[in-house]
Design goal:
Helix content: 40-55%
Structural class: alpha/beta
Strand content: 15-25%
Strand order of the largest sheet: 8-23-22-21-9-18-20-19
Largest sheet: 8 strands, mixed
Number of helices: 35
Radius of gyration: 37 Å
């Protein structure tokens, strides 16, 4: 219902109320029928549901399957061979991996949905309401449609209302509309603009909305909507409907997980069937079929364990967590872990203007006057804002705060002015005449200062100040003032004029019509909510990094265009569009034309969400920054939502992925750099671990075809969890490469193995697998004197050592995906530490009898140990040669 387009009498009739409000009985009946004036709370997932959701991963299912098979085979072996019992170490190791990864996921990824609670906290606790003509104080949640509420400065609006009376009432609606200037509230009906379907929320001057605050004056209003039917309620509903989409890395890891699962199941099935068939055809006669099947199944399980990078989920999570810590030190607080890498591929940043690109602080930036001190004095005295000499900022209505701060900067302190020139009378501001006058005693005289809309004030003047003297007003002077104010308006400055009048004594009347005549014009000031100084450099860096900055605001078009031009977001006003123009576009038309515009003015919350979705529909990873309640739905709809830590509402912080602790737009650039670095490092970790797993697959698969067991599942779990994961973590600590912020954003469709990295991974993995297999043959030859593909304790031990060592040396080469490690200027001491640590642990497993027996290894001599180490070391020069060839071929 468009109550703002209806006369107040019709509104009262529509809601079945009167100027004296509802009766207590009627109010209670409506409360019972429609419910309380509060927002609905969505159900929250319990710990069990989060735990089960974290387990819903194909690789986790495969690991649990491997654990089940391992348990069955161990139980069967212990029952059939009592004198040669096996431990359940594989089961416990696998379960430890699953539980660790799940717990990490819950702890790090759990996102507290506090947006609705925060919205409820914004609602005023109590309200003054007319019930049967009597003013009462009731709980805000007990308000109903038809209640008439009483409003005054400082009140939080408890529901959406149509204004019935307004006495110079101004309402701060920045959290809802993005406008930094309080809105003067009127009572008359509004008319739709031609061609427009609705009036933007920020232009509905005869309405007040839940979540906004009265900053000046007083008034009465009738409640037209409560709870979820309010504008804030609509935002809350949009938040509950918006879905959390998977990030690019999540999608890639999910696809990789599914692919690995399919490959593993296929290869394991082949190995099992091949092994059983070979034993049936060529195995010893009379061998128990069940034993043959179980032995072959154990090999298949080992192959499955080899193929699954068990440590990858945990390592990726930890690397992201380390990135979160690094980003927090740069004032970027991450609420959702995977948002870190999303930042790295951000292509569009849709930013709110007020409080994000600007300071959310009206400031006098220019003035025109013949006497600057007199102009500042007049503006400060004719204001109700307060500021003591030792205060950092003025307190009060934002426009008047700007005037008092302006005078303060000229060493005219408001508290001292009020004492020196006490106010003895006033004609308060009224939106119909657009002026305010105050009377001050100066010696024996009473001096009147009047401020307001420049053209109105000028029209009441019969003189002007020139070189300290009062000159008679001329049309030429009026024209010059009009020309200068037009120039100010062209810069999107809000212009206020000031004039004075000297009374020899107390004036006979304080009525505006009596006071505001025969004035002397002093001058005018131009105000604006200025850009943040650091925003200029941040926008420049965004463009250098290939990121497109877009401004979305509820403010007026000319203001938005001026700010955007100043920041070089746009070069021409044609690159801006207003909300009412967006309404005329279908979703398809907006998607096709969204790239034409970098400024969106006078938009409503649903417009912001449409804009974000249009950019996303063009295949671009989109971020949305903001601080107000009006930004919350679009922040949640974006690929990455960025909230402001200082000026941001609790609602926005509750739904965003990242919070800027310092409200500094430049912090986003730092976060993007960190996100790109983390993605690069995670990509290195993934390729390193998958290369290692591929090496294990090649070696175990070829060994199974040749009829012997190369490594057990416990061996492979140790290798994947210790030897792979520790250097993997260290690779996640690599510093950013020099050209990181000069690269274009990577497209979301770019694969983890693009740029030839996949072919390098396959080639190196195959070579490493052959080195492992060759090490086994060397051990078999030394133990048996020949290579006959028999089971060899020395061969298995050498294969275990070679697998560990070769993956350690491969980690050193993995520091750069394409470049030579010998050309890198930085040193990764974390990696060297991980190298030494894993080397010591591997040697400990081999040299300490308890662990050697637990892993089924045997003692080998120094020559065999050095052969295993030498074979492993050979991968380092081979890897560097492969990358050099790729660089030359590129």
């Amino acid at each position: 219902m468009k109550f703002y387009c209806m006369d107040k009498a019709d509104v009262l009739a529509k809601v079945d109320s009167s100027p004296n409000g509802l009766s207590e009985q009627s109010a209670q009946e409506r409360l019972q029928q429609h419910g309380k004036n509060k927002l609905a709370e969505p159900p929250k997932d319990g710990l069990l549901k989060k735990f089960l959701r974290a387990l819903a991963d194909p690789m986790i299912f495969l690991l649990l399957g491997a654990a089940a098979v391992s348990t069955i085979t161990t139980v069967y072996h212990n029952l059939t061979t009592p004198g040669d019992s096996e431990s359940f170490s594989e089961l416990f190791i696998i379960l430890f991996v699953v539980v660790l990864n799940t717990v990490l996921s819950i702890v790090q990824e759990s996102k507290a949905e506090k947006a609705i609670d925060a919205l409820m906290d914004m609602t005023a606790a109590t309200s003054r309401v007319l019930r049967g003509g009597e003013a009462l104080t009731v709980k805000s949640e007990e308000l109903v449609v038809g209640d008439v509420i009483l409003l005054e400065a400082g009140d939080a609006i408890p529901a959406d209302c149509r204004i019935l009376e307004s006495h110079a009432m101004k309402v701060e609606e920045a959290a809802l509309t993005g406008e930094s200037v309080p809105v003067n509230k009127l009572i008359g009906l509004l008319m739709l603009r031609e061609g427009s379907k609705d009036i933007p929320l920020g232009d509905r001057v005869n309405m007040v909305y839940s979540g906004s605050v009265v900053v000046y004056g007083r008034g009465r209003a009738v409640v037209t909507a409560t709870g979820m039917d309010t504008e804030i309620g609509k935002i809350a509903a949009a938040l509950s409907e918006a879905r959390d989409e998977a990030t690019p890395l999540q999608k890639k890891l999910s696809a990789l997980s599914i692919t690995l699962t399919k490959v593993v199941l296929g290869v394991c099935a082949f190995v099992f069937l091949f092994g059983v068939g070979r034993n049936l055809l060529f195995g010893p006669a009379g061998a128990p079929m069940l034993n043959v099947a179980l032995d072959t199944f154990i090999i298949a399980v080992a192959l499955a364990v080899a193929a699954i990078p068990e440590g990858l989920p945990a390592v990726s999570t930890i690397v992201l967590s380390l990135g979160v810590t690094a980003m927090s030190k740069r004032n970027a607080l991450i609420r959702r872990l995977t948002a870190v890498e999303t930042l790295g591929c951000t292509q569009v940043i849709c930013s709110d203007k007020t409080g994000t690109l600007t300071q959310n602080r009206m400031t006098v930036v220019d003035a025109f006057t013949g006497d600057a001190l007199l102009l500042a004095k007049a503006m400060a005295l004719c204001s109700d804002a307060k500021r003591k000499k030792d205060m950092a900022e003025a307190e009060g209505e934002p426009t008047e705060c700007a005037l008092v701060n302006y005078a303060h900067g000229l060493e005219l302190y408001k508290d001292e002015l009020d004492q020196q020139f006490p106010r003895v009378g006033e004609a308060p501001f009224d939106s119909s005449r657009k002026m305010m006058s105050t009377l001050h005693r100066e010696d024996e005289r009473v001096v009147q200062y009047t401020k307001g809309a420049c053209e109105i004030v000028l029209g009441r003047c019969t003189g002007y100040l020139q070189n300290g003297k009062v000159e008679s007003m001329t049309q030429a002077y009026r024209n010059s003032i009009a020309q200068r104010t037009e120039e100010f308006a062209g810069r999107a400055l809000r212009v206020l004029g000031a004039a004075m009048r000297v009374h020899e004594g107390e004036p006979d009347s304080h009525e505006p019509d009596f006071l505001e005549q025969e004035l002397v014009f002093i001058g005018f000031v131009g105000m604006i909510d200025p850009c943040r100084p650091e925003a200029y450099e941040a926008i420049r860096q965004c463009r250098e990094a290939g990121i497109r900055p877009v401004m979305i605001t509820g403010d007026h078009r000319h203001t938005a265009v001026a700010i955007a031009k100043d920041l070089q977001i746009i070069t021409d006003a044609s690159q801006a569009i207003e909300g009412y123009e967006l309404e005329a576009l279908s979703d398809e038309e907006l998607m096709a034309s969204v790239h034409k515009y970098s400024v969106y003015a006078r938009v409503q919350p649903e417009h912001k969400t449409r804009i974000v979705q249009a950019w996303k529909a063009n295949g671009l990873v989109t971020a949305m920054t903001g601080d107000g309640v009006n930004d919350a739905p679009s922040i949640k709809a974006a690929d990455i939502g960025i909230g402001m830590g200082i000026t941001g509402t609790a609602v926005t912080k509750g739904v965003c992925d990242m919070v800027l602790a310092d409200d500094n737009f430049a912090t986003i650039v730092n976060a993007v750099e960190e996100g790109r670095k983390i993605y690069d490092n995670i990509r290195k970790v993934i390729q390193y671990q998958l290369t290692s797993n591929l090496a294990e697959i090649v070696a175990v698969f070829l060994a199974s075809l040749l009829g012997f067991r190369l490594l057990s599942a416990a061996h492979l779990l140790w290798i994947n969890l210790v030897t792979d994961s520790t250097p993997g973590l260290a690779l996640g600590m690599e510093k950013a490469e020099g050209d990181l912020m000069r690269r274009k954003p990577r497209p979301p469709s770019e694969g983890l193995f693009s740029g030839g990295a996949g072919s390098i991974m396959v080639l190196e993995g195959a070579l490493m697998g052959l080195l492992i297999l060759f090490s086994y043959f060397a051990g078999e030859y030394i133990e048996h004197g020949s290579v006959s593909f028999q089971q060899s304790a020395d061969g298995m031990t050498m294969a275990f050592l070679t697998t560990n060592f070769v993956e350690m040396f491969r980690a050193l080469s993995a520091r750069s995906l394409h470049g030579s490690i010998f050309a890198m200027k930085s040193v990764n001491w974390w990696l060297w530490g991980a190298f030494v640590w894993t080397f010591v642990l591997t040697c400990g497993v081999f040299f300490i009898p308890t662990f050697r027996n637990l892993f089924g290894l045997t003692v080998i001599d120094f020559k065999e140990f050095m052969i295993a180490l030498g074979l492993a070391l050979s991968i380092l020069p081979v890897s560097e040669l492969i990358k050099a060839y790729k660089r030359r071929a590129a």
